[in-house]
Each structure stands twice: as C-alpha cells, then as structure tokens.
Amino acid sequence: MSSLNLDDFSDLIERPDGGVRRDAEARRERQIVPPGALGRLDDLGEWLAAAQSAVPVRPIDRPRVVLFAGDHGIAELGVSGRAAGSASELVREVLEGGRPVSVLARRLGVPVRIVDMALDCDPAELPQDVVRHRVRRGSGRIDVEDALTPEEAEAAFRAGIALADEEADSGTDLVVLGDVSVGGTTAAGVLVAALCGTDASVVTGRGGTGIDDLAWMRKCAAIRDALRRARPVLGDQLQLLATVGGADLAAITGFLLQSAVRKLPVVLDGVVVAACALVGQRIAFRAPDWWVAGQNSGEPGQAKALDRMALEPLLDHGVTVGEGAGGLLALPLVQAAAALAAELPERADAAEEPKAAPEPEPEKASDEE
C-alpha cells in the first residue's frame, strides 16, 4: 500500500504572506511612480514580496529552467509532428544549444536542467548532463491502456518532489518549468478535458509541431478515447496521472506541489505544465498562489486550464514550441518587476504624509454608576 498521502499537501501549503503583501503595496504607494503606472509589474512585484516574505523584494538572482522529459505511447497514432519515441533527440538538441530554450537560456545566463522520466531510448545514449529519474521506457498508449502502473506513478511523483527539494535547498529562487516530450500535449489535453468537464475538441490544439488537419483529427479522437478512461478515476489524482498522464506529467505535478510547500515561485510554460498545475490545484487549492503563467501559447487546453486556476499569462506571443521557451521569455519581466519594486525611490513627501489619527479610547465608566 502506498505511503503517499496527497491530502497532506493541503495542510502543508500556505498562501504567500498576506501581511507582507500589504506592506509591499504600501511601499509601492510611496514610490515616485504613481500606483498602476507600471501595470502588471506592480502586481508581480507584490506577489514576489509575499512569496519571499520580504519588503523590499529581493532580486531574482538564481533562476533555473527545469524540464521533465518523456515519450508517450499515444504518439504512435500520429498525433504529433515528430516521430514517436524521438524525445531524446530534442533533449540532445537542447543541451547542445540548438533549441529556442537553449538560445534564450544562454542569452539570459540561466542554467537548464533536464530530467529523464520516461524517454524511449537507451540511457547510455543520453548526454551526461541529463538527470536520471526514469521510471519506465515510454509511457503507455492512453487511449487503450494506462500510461503507468500505480507504482510507477508514485515513483514519478516522488521524483518531482525530490527535485523541488533539491532546487529549494540549492538556493534557486525561481523556476521556469517546462517539458520535453513527444505526445505530451495529447495527454495534457485529456487531463484538462477531464478536470474541466469538457469535450475533446475544446482542448485539442496543434501542439508545438503545428500538425495538419488530419493529425489534429487523430489527436482529437485519441483524447476522446482516453477521456472515457479518465472519467472513472477523477476522484483520485494520482490514479488519474497513472491512467492518462505519464511519468513526466506525474513528476511535474509533484514538483509543482512541493515547490509550493517550499515557497519556491514557479513560472509555468505551456499546456503540459498547465495541465499538471490543474491536477495540483485539485490536490491543494492554495498551490496556484505560488505559480505565475509565463505565456499564452495559443493552445486551447492551456487557456482552459489557466482560466480554471484564475492565472492570467504575462505574455501573449503564441509560442508553442514548448521546452520552457515561452516561460523563459517571461523571466526578464519578473526580474524587472522585482527590481522596480525594490529600487524605485520613495517620494520626498512620503515620509511627511500625515498618519491617520488614532481612534479615541472609549470612556471608562465612573465608579458611581
């Protein structure tokens, strides 16, 4: 029997410090630029202050990109523009510097960490830099079989927890979270449709490879068939991840929840991470307070998930490439918000503003009454 109790996350996860946020808002009102003039940057700075329990907010100096990698058996149905079982090629390209996230990370000076959860290749073929947490070689074809056994799902979930602890313990102050997968957006679509109670066509997008109409129809049918298998297990989130998720998605969900426990802010990238965040919200309703949506990829499943969690993307550039690239684009915005909140000077007259007069104390009753 599993010793993992998902209900513990509801008890362990607190909201970002509301008192600190009010202090950050008060500081913002005293600064030389009028409140509201910086738009969402004001809100971002105050969110960071609350997450850090610090006023003024500390700069984001040690961010990291964390990418969970895996192949999905559903890709055998031709639902992706890439060949089934080819996610390891993407992993190598990222680490060799040839993918969009590689270019952005190099330019921004942000380290990238890739975790093998279910790549369909010989582990010896992978670069040494890949973190090894593989629970199986490729996740199952979710339209006809479970993605994982219950034991594999728990192992993947626990791997995500352990990696979040590693990041928090190493001093990482913000994570840009993404995936490197083939077939992952199909599994994500199933999770979003199941948790939002909607049809397959509402959540089916064209993924990062821009599939054609025939592939889109195959993907829609695959999500529809997997959705029938997902609905009976909606009450058990770990079983849901085992049935129609995958090892990378289970690990991402564990990572998101433990990051919230450790008070480590996370920038969400695309539809795969958004779907996992939606599962995380079902487990612990306060967890989304620790996450910010980096970008709107244009994927309908992502939009549905973010709307359900009341998370508004910072950017809207339609970056569907995945691999954390869209989320990483939002990082300079988050860093700018922290810098502005901390470094803008206060108005010269702010210290002279009169404080509210204290309320008079109630009169004491006389001894003769």
What is the chain-wise order of helices and strands?
A: HHHEHHEEHEHHHHHEHEHH
Q: What's the helix count?
A: 14
User: Can you count the beta strands?
Assistant: 6
Strand order of the largest sheet: 3-2-1-4-5-6
**Molecular shape:** globular
Structural class: alpha/beta
The overall pLDDT, averaged over residues, is 93
Query: What would you report as the Rg, rounded to the nearest angstrom?
Result: 23 Å
Overview of the structural elements:
There is one protein chain. The longest helix is centred in the middle third of the chain and has 21 residues, at 150-170. The protein has 14 helices and six strands. It has helices at residues 8-12, 18-30, 40-52, 87-95, 100-108, 150-170, 184-196, 200-203, 213-230, 237-244, 247-261, 271-283, 300-309, 325-343; strands at 63-71, 112-118, 131-132, 174-182, 266-268, 291-293. The chain is an alpha/beta fold. Strands 3-2-1-4-5-6 form a six-stranded parallel beta sheet, with helices on both faces. The protein starts with 7 loop residues before the first helix and ends in a 26-residue tail after the last helix. Residues 365-369 have low confidence and may be disordered.
